Amino acid sequence: MRAFEQLAPLELAPEVLRQYLECWRVEIDGAPVLSPTGCVAFGRTADPGGTPRAVVVKVAGERSDEGLAWAALRHFDGRGSVRLLAQACGAGLLERALPGRPLSELVLAGRDDEATAILCDVSAALHRPAAPDAGSGFPSVTDWARGFDRYRRSGDGALPRPLVDRADALFRELAATQGAPRLLHGDLHQFNLVSDAERGWLAIDPKGVLGEPAYEFGALLRNPWGDGFARAQCASAPVVDRRIRIIAERLGLDRERVLAWGFAQAVLSAVWSREDGEAPDHALAVAGAIFTTLRGIRGQRGSAVDPARRSSLRPNGQSFEPRAWAGAPSP
Question: How far apart, in whole angstroms, are the C-alpha atoms of residue 309 and residue 291?
Answer without folding.
Answer: 20
